[in-house]
Amino acid sequence: EIVLTQFPGTLSLSPGERATLSCRASQSFSGSSLAWYQQKPGQAPRLLIYDASNRATGIPDRFSGSGSGTDFTLTISRLEPEDFAVYYCQQYVSSPLTFGGGTKVEIK
Amino acid sequence: EVQLVESGGGLVSPGGSLRLSCEASGFIFSTYTMNWVRQAPGKGLEWLASISSGGLNADNPDSARGRFAISRDNARNSLYLEMNSLRDDDTAVYYCARGIGDYLVYYFDSWGQGTQVTVSS
């Protein structure tokens, strides 16, 4: 089973600042089978990024993903008020499909 | 517009059973892998089960195998999760999600709003 570790657990930033979220896999990926999701309180997760760096339909270009091997990053270039949420990474290299524990981006 | 609407959640006693449903619309249901993902209170996301587009292949993590069974009815555009021998730690919001990817490995591009399952005596 591939374990995903997300850090930091909480990121305290102000609107307009840049957010950098990390996701580290316990095994190296041969490919880019990693997705990122955003979840707001009381809502279902929303797909942001797939294949490590491709934005899902309708996702603003301030969201970008990068990485390969064991280390992946989600960057939000300038935080908007609606971006304060919890973010999860998920691998789809192998079964069982696994998620990271999440990073909460909160208003400083 | 893709819509996934879960139902069937509720309060159930430990050891009991429950069947969740997910009704899909806005896309050709029979051509997509479908999945169940859950989230315990204050916790992260946990994949529970996947089923191939035709319903012939299903997959679970070890933690769900034997107690949770996924099925689908393409004629009714519906997905199901049969849950047995429920425990307190099965208390969670259960989401239906559409899968995109290759055999047994998917990401989830559309999610339902979830249905709450509470296991308590």
The proportion of residues forming helix of chain A, as a percent range, comes to: under 10%
The value of Rg of chain A in angstroms is: 13 Å
Q: What is the helix/strand order of chain B? A: EEEEEEEEEEE
User: Can you count the beta strands of chain B?
Assistant: 11
Structural class of chain B: mainly beta
Largest interface: A-B, 24 and 22 residues
The biggest sheet of chain A amounts to: 7 strands, mixed
**Rounded mean pLDDT score of chain A:** 96
As a percent range, the share of strand residues of chain A is: over 45%
Low-confidence runs of at least 5 consecutive residues of chain B: none
Report a brief summary of the structure.
Chain A is mostly beta strands and 108 residues long. Helix content of chain A is 0%, strand content 49%.
Can you walk me through this structure?
The complex is a heterodimer of chains A (108) and B (121). Chain A is mainly beta and 108 residues long. Chain A is 0% helix and 49% strand. Chain A has no helices and eleven strands. The model of chain A has no long low-confidence stretch (mean pLDDT 96). Chain B has strands at residues 3-7, 10-12, 18-25, 33-39, 45-51, 58-59, 68-73, 78-83, 92-102, 105-111, 115-119. Chain B is globular and about 40 Å long. The chains are: A mainly beta (108), B mainly beta (121).
